[in-house]
Amino acid sequence: MSRQKIKRLWAGLLAVVICLAPAPAFSAEKTIERGRPVFLLDALGNILSIPKKILLLNWKIDNHKVSPQTEAELQKFLDAHPETEKNLKVRINQWTPVGEFRRLAQNKRIPWYFRVFPGIPTTAFSSLTGRVLGGDHYNPYTNTIHLFSDDAAVALHEAGHAVDFAHQKSPGLYAVGRILPPIELNQEQIASDTAIAYLKEQKDRPGELHAYKTLYPAFGTYAGEQSGLGYGNYIGAGAGHALGFLESRNQRLGYEAIDNARVGDHVITQQSPLSKSLLTHQADSRKALLSSLDKTAE
Question: For residue 89, what pLDDT is reported?
Answer without folding.
Answer: 96
